[in-house]
Design brief:
This protein is of the alpha/beta class. It folds into two domains: 11-146 and 226-266, Vaccinia Virus protein VP39 (Rossmann fold); 148-223, no CATH class. It contains eight helices and eleven strands. It has helices at 11-20, 28-37, 54-59, 71-83, 119-131, 150-154, 158-161, 228-237; strands spanning 43-46, 64-68, 90-92, 104-109, 133-144, 173-176, 182-193, 198-209, 212-224, 241-247, 260-266. A seven-stranded mixed beta sheet has the order 3-2-1-4-5-11-10, with helices on both faces. Bound molecules: S-adenosylmethionine.
Length: 267
């Protein structure tokens, strides 16, 4: 086991998140917010990233702290908060070692459980979450499924697996930042392991200024793939009860068309 989770949210990837990801999957923001406003404060945003959820909640006057394993993501979150005159309590720590001198009514983990991690650490993280929740507090965790992306899902088939790692994607998403540079980002699949199951992806980010490549980085990300039953059992083993599963960050039962499930569990 690596000593720290293997994520790609550093350096230029953190710059990309800070610059462009505020509007990503906007419907998730009101989903968690409803829980926070319904006797769910104080709350902790685990793996808060650059504050896509945290900043709107702080703006609304909600009592929410944040933590993340990436010092670069936390620094960007702090900078963005300070630009708005906000001063959230943020810390840099991996979720499986969560250690914050405060307990919460709600802990939420959005787009991050199983990211950069492994099953042993994730089981430990659930225990840490329970220890940081007040009695009757709520844990909210989502899990996304790769079958939303046919290119990614088809790679699990035996004959496709043999062709991994994918070669570098010629297509990248390229955007201009506020300081006039351009960031170009592309991802590719390195490996899938159907036995665990888990996958490894690579991300490449380039920074261009006036048509000249100024910097480039490539990072790896391990991603544990959870299906409904396994995550439910892990929550039960960690001592959670009253587990409810929603589809697509909406307060309704999941359907077979949903590519995201959200687990709401009580201490
Ligand atoms: C896909 S981003 C999501 C960020 C934010 N939750 C959002 O929805 O905008 C994943 C985040 O999880 C963080 N992360 C990954 N593994 C982590 C771990 N083991 N402990 C804490 N944070 C982690 C990354 O640094 C990154 O900021």
């Amino acid at each position: 086991m690596d000593s720290q989770p293997q994520t790609w949210h550093h350096g230029l990837v953190a710059d990309w998140w800070a610059a462009f990801n505020d509007d990503f999957r906007a419907h998730e923001i009101p989903y968690f917010r409803e829980y926070l406003e319904d006797d769910g404060q104080p709350a902790l945003d685990v793996a808060c990233g650059t504050g896509r959820l945290l900043l709107p909640y702080l703006r609304a006057g909600l009592d929410v702290d944040g933590c993340d394993v990436s010092a670069d993501m936390v620094a960007a979150c702090r900078r963005k908060a300070a630009n708005e005159g906000l001063d959230p309590k943020l810390s840099v720590q991996p979720m499986h070692e969560l250690d914050i001198p405060r307990t919460y009514r709600t802990i939420f983990v959005c787009g991050s459980f199983g990211v950069g991690s492994d099953r042993t650490r994730d089981a430990e993280a659930l225990i840490r979450f329970r220890e940081h929740l007040e009695p009757g507090g709520t844990l909210l965790i989502d899990a996304g499924f790769g079958f939303a992306d046919p290119a990614e899902w088809s790679a699990w088939a035996q004959e496709q697996r043999a062709s991994l790692p994918q070669t570098r994607q010629p297509e990248s998403d390229r955007r201009r930042t506020a300081d006039g540079t351009e960031l170009a980002i592309s991802t590719r699949l390195i490996d899938v392991d159907p036995v665990e199951p888990q996958m490894t992806k690579a991300i490449r980010v380039e920074r261009w200024r006036d048509g000249v490549l100024e910097a480039e980085e490539e990072h790896l990300l391990h991603h544990v793939v959870y299906f409904e039953d396994e995550l439910r059992q892990m929550l039960e083993r960690a001592g959670f009860r009253d587990i409810v599963v929603h589809g697509e960050h909406e307060r309704r039962p999941p359907t077979s068309d949903d590519v995201f499930l959200v687990f709401a569990a009580k201490t």
